[in-house]
Amino acid sequence: MDTVRDGAPADRREFADWVRPHLPAMARLAARLAPDAERDDVVQEALLRAWLKRRQYDEGKGTPTAWLLAITADRAGRARARGRPDVLARERQVEPVSDAGLDLRQALDRLTGRQRAAVDCVYFVGLTVAETAAVMRCAEGTVKSTLADARTRLRALLEVAG
User: Where in the numbering of this chain does the RNA polymerase sigma-70 region domain appear (predicted)?
Assistant: First the structure.
């Protein structure tokens, strides 16, 4: 494989082969982070961005999976912001939920964007804490703290519903 730098493919065919094993994880993350957007559109935007930025990939800084999922998370966030302007207002809400029918999906929707991203990456996409840190562009300790906060918030939300 003719690489551009540190493992990134140089031509379209090599790029397609390089990203193929990561497509399922990219699709799962896109669906989780931008549920109202078309998952395939988000993945396509991420692939285009990855192709254009392939020279910036540095395997010394992380795995291809983490790099591609970081791009996917960015594109999903943009798609989500375009499609749902009320997201920021909803994320700032902290009052308890009194709806007895609250389910896990509704509880996950009440997490902050950062908490939801950490939960999605670790529990729904199956990334390690280190890979999640690369996707979220933060320290591993931040991911662990964010996950702990998210679990506490989910526990409280689900207890109210139960």
Answer: 19-78
Q: Give me the DSSP letters along the chain.
A: --BSSTT-BSSHHHHHHHHGGGHHHHHHHHHHH-TTS-HHHHHHHHHHHHHHTGGG--TTS--HHHHHHHHHHHHHHHHHHHH-TTHHHHHH--SPP--TT--HHHHHHTS-HHHHHHHIIIIIS---HHHHHHHHTS-HHHHHHHHHHHHHHHHHHHHHH-
Fold of 1-85: Rna Polymerase Sigma Factor; Chain: A (1.10.1740)
Domain boundaries 99-162, CATH class: mainly alpha
Quick: pLDDT tens for 74-124. 998 888 887 754 444 444 344 444 454 458 888 888 999 899 999 999 998
